[in-house]
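Pair request: fold both.
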Amino acid sequence: MSRTESLAAYLRAQGRRRLDRVEAADDGHNARCALALLDAAAYAESLPEDDPLIEMLEKAGCFGPLGFDEFAPGEEGARFIRDWSGSEPHELLLALPAVTASA
């Protein structure tokens, strides 16, 4: 599995997880998060392997120490992704290296 495929699969799984959440008074928050994550997954899947965003995530250690493992953003990165409801997928990917580095 390529890095972009791994990233997209992770984001897609998190989006589906948000779709499955049922909270009585969330005012559509879970739906917005799910849509943003599914959009980010589609965006990530369209990126070439040598895209600067993918390279930034690799340098941040999101693909393991050698850059060939499955996407794993760490605890802080996972929390950031789970709560993402932003509008632009590239903003999520741009913010992740700083979030994972601060952990």
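--- second member of the pair ---
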Amino acid sequence: MTTPPNSPATQDRWSPRLWGTLLVLCAAMFLDALDVSMVGVALPSIATDLGLSTATLQWIVSGYILGYGGLLLLGGRAADLLGRRRVFLIALGVFALASLLGGLVDSGPLLIASRFIKGLSAAFTAPAGLSIITTTFKEGPQRNRALSIYTTCAATGFSMGLVLSGLLTELSWRWTMLLPAPIALIALAFALKLIPHSAREEGRGGYDLPGAVTGTAAMLLLVFTVVQAPEAGWGSARTLLSFLATAALLAAFVTIERRSASPLVRLGVLRSGSQVRAQLGAAAFFGSYVAFQFIVTQYMQSLLGWSALQTALAFLPAGLLVALSSTKIGGIVDRFGTPRVIAVGFTLLVVGYALFLRVSLTPQYAAVILPSMLLLGAACALVFPSLNIQATNGVADEEQGMVSGLLNTSVQVGGALFLAVVTAVITADGAGGGSPQAVLDSYRPGLAVVTVIALAGLLITLPGLRTRQRQESLVVAKSAEAPAAAETPVSAEEPVGARD
């Protein structure tokens, strides 16, 4: 769907309907992110109430990741082919029903099944919602502003999930499962009125079923393998064979996509350096943060003896900083471009993680924990919206769902992969059953790995700074020959070759 020149999205002032559309999409993304983080604090209560073992308990988290990370590519392409509005509405309704089911069941397997269904529905709402924004708001300052608000809601949802979980778990873990249901139903009611219709892509060569099967199977197996690797052993035959099978499926997927008349993922998109940097940066950003949150939650509750609510409140400054900056990031990106904003954000991320290495068995909230949380909040506010803007700029409307699916896949697979790696690092020497100091010492290598992951994200971003400088030089040179050329703003790195 191409945005008409005189549509509200091209004007400086947004109509109430346009604001309503954006807020509905933000609510869905907020719920997706909320559900990722909110279950963590409730796990001990769930285990006690349902009598679940540790091995079974992990699947309450892993089931959601499997559904979400494994089906995002299919979800993104389905939004392009079947209609973004239709896919979004159906998936949001399924999300609400699965939330209701999760809060009412009395069986571990049924709870895991409900989590998988929620992850599956999120795999369709996330790329559909993002592509609705990128096809409704014109590329440039208007879209940047919309994306900054949208992605900030996601980051806020992830941060606030811990706080809400701490509060609700005091009543019952079931409330952490039930809370998203009424919110999703309210969002669905407004979405029926506000979400614009989008045309289906009829006659574009079919649905690429072989690509959908191999791509989805590859993502599901990859996520399953990295989730299970710490338990099975990274060097075990089971893990190695799973990785080999994943590689074979990915090779088959690439071959199919190259030959397909209507590919699930058009590989030419990845010829763009800015697109590749956005995808890898998203994996490093979310992977490092998820692993950091996992370690810090264990540190605060197991070593410092803090309650679930105290732990949640410790993360609150980061969430508040992200929420308060939601309307400002678009203007910052317009002025400085995505590469510079992402680079600054990753720098803050590295410093925040490195600072946390100074923690001890004595709480140091004002000196260590609070500064780290503020740095991480600022980093999240800068990096996450900018990555979304960079990934979707310069992409045709009919491929926005596909690119959105790619980006969300990078986020989820990065989260699963790096969390599994960091978990393996902190449990490698078996220090978990030792003294408190031994446990803390086992956390430090994990924090160091988290810092290195964030540093890798920064290094991935740096080549984009040189690209932007060359583009600015071209604009300046052209403006000397033709003053009108200077009127074209350089608000973000142009993904050269994105349409090849």
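Observation on the second member. The chain has a mean pLDDT of 81.
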